[in-house]
């Protein structure tokens, strides 16, 4: 007999209880773009369906979740709850040592200057960031882009210039890379070049400077997530020695 009961603990967490013992919990978190991501962790199989039903009853659609590509069982459970695969992303580890990447920070495309975000004009940096998002919306679609460039429900996303490296041509800001400092392994959150400036080596130049700076600071690798449809980014990363280490499936219930 199924004796599992569900309690909502607070605005973001649910618990599954069996005779007073916790046998699972569910959580919800809001991403910077406003999307709601849910997760469930259980120690009793029957608790998953109960938690999923309670979360779906309490929260508005659409709801999202991420599942590792190596966990088809969890993916199947979410699909039974009405979720469907929406996108897939690959995870990569990138070396930072120029001897491994083959990148030379001293070499940049003709007429292009690379500078740290702390030396950039914040207004021009914000305009570039906005232009990148608009080009993504007009092209592959903003849902294929990292959370850093997705539209936010409550206005523009605060920018921390110290996390950016910027490419400038003739005074115009034409590309950027964003690095999130994480202990032991930094995250490459975004590499973007304006549509009219692509295929000129600017992305490689940006990564050369960003990864080179990490290497000099003692960080030997960085990681990144890339939508599987972003063939340009995949080619760029794999061309500098990045190794694919796994991936995630994003599922959504509308």
From TrEMBL:
It holds the Pfam family Acetyltransf_1. Keywords: Acyltransferase, Transferase. InterPro entries: Acyl_CoA_acyltransferase, Bact_Acetyltransf, GNAT_dom. It comes from the Bacteria. SUPFAM superfamilies: Acyl-CoA N-acyltransferases (Nat). CDD domains: NAT_SF (cd04301). Residues 112-254 form the N-acetyltransferase domain. This is GNAT family N-acetyltransferase.
């Amino acid at each position: 007999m199924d004796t599992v009961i569900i309690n909502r603990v607070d605005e973001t967490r649910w618990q599954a209880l069996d005779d007073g013992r916790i046998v699972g919990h569910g959580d919800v978190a809001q991403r910077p773009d406003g999307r709601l991501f849910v997760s469930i962790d259980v120690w009793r199989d029957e608790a998953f369906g109960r938690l999923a039903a309670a979360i779906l009853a309490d929260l508005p659609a659409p709801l999202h979740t991420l599942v590792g590509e190596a966990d088809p069982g969890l993916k199947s459970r979410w699909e039974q709850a009405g979720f469907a695969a929406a996108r897939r992303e690959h995870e990569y580890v990138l070396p930072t040592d120029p001897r491994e990447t083959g990148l030379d920070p001293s070499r940049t495309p003709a007429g292009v200057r690379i500078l740290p975000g702390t030396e950039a004009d914040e207004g021009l940096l914000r305009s570039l960031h906005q232009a990148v998002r608009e080009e993504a919306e007009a092209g592959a679609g903003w849902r294929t882009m990292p959370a850093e460039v997705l539209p936010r429900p409550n206005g523009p996303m605060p920018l921390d210039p110290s996390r950016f490296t910027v490419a400038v041509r003739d005074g115009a800001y034409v590309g950027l890379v964003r690095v999130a400092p994480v202990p032991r392994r930094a995250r490459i959150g975004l590499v973007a070049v304006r549509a009219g400036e692509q295929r000129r080596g600017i992305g490689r130049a940006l990564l050369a400077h960003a990864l080179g700076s990490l290497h000099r600071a003692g960080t030997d690798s960085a990681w990144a997530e890339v939508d599987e449809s972003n063939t340009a980014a995949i080619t760029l990363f794999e061309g500098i020695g990045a190794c694919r280490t796994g991936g995630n499936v994003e599922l959504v219930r509308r």
